[in-house]
Amino acid sequence: MSTVVVSGALANRPDNGGGASVRMTWVSALRRLGFDVWFFEQIDRSLLGAEPGEGGAPEESRPARYFRSVTERHGLAERRVLLDERGASVFGPDRQALEGVAAEAALLVNLSGHLTVPWLFERFARKAYVDLDPGFTQFWHAEGVQGARLAGHDGYFTVGLNIGQPGCPIPVDGIAWSPLPPPVVLDEWPVEEGDLDAFTTVASWRGSYGGVDHRGRHYGSKAHEFRKFIELPQRLPIPVQIALDIHPADEGDRVALREHGWELVDPGEVAAEPESYRRYLAGSGAELSVAQGIYVETASGWISDRTVRYLASGRPVLVQDTGFSDHYPVGRGLLAFRTVEEAVTGAESIAGAYDAHRLWARYLAEEFFDSDRVVGRLLEELEAAR
Known about the structure:
Helix content is 35%, strand content 18%.
């Protein structure tokens, strides 16, 4: 059985059930295709300062505990390592053992270019970069920002399906980006029964990175897009709820959201773990969400991994168009909007034919986002490029 290593952020993003779900999806998807899968994570040791009363041991810090908990529940107790920025193990196998895993591995799937430790990265014979943040990644690379981490890979894949196409201003800088939708393991997201009692989503008010400036233009954050649609719940007969990560400094925005009818809940309470995140999505009536400004303004073709999981659960989605409507049929199960009026019309359509939209939602997940197809396509393209 061939070995594949997945590298991504768990400890770096503790209590983020959605982010953890994305990383573990790649583990599950590759296992389904017959691989022996390891998970490597790299973290700056300064982020592992343990909480008071825990003895100060990095391996007992909240980020490290989250890493251990998620990986153990996904069957990785013997196939995981948490490394610091120098490559020293916080816990997991030592350097010699890791060098052996990397040297024997058929592939490194490097989510957002996460693994950079030179002595380990260079041991892999094949390395695939999977871009989860289209626009950010390419603008950073064009500006020479270290966070892009693109060098040294054998294939480049992005969920920004329009990158490199006319009308999309995201620079490619000579890199041949292959479009790759976010995968979902359908067996892990079965269709759930339910009613259209509320539209929901899980979101961060400003996102992980904020805005980006490139060649005199500013590309905005999700907060800016939410403000454009702040009146939307007042136009709908169905409640709208967000599991929203919003900083106390943005209290004015929090108040404005509530005044306009948005119901806010704490994502730490409803979606901190992959399991609670799945329950929250599957227990919702449908999704309603805006996108990061950078995804909208560049027409990147991005679609959220979260949206794909709503679809798999048989939950219709009503989401801001980023150009993904160029690639997927919209209007049934998956509805796109650019204006408040289009969002109102989409919500009314879902409410008026809810059961039909639910069937279409699952169909679209099976047709376009099934991990067997998506991850299989990545492997086929890498093999063809040899």
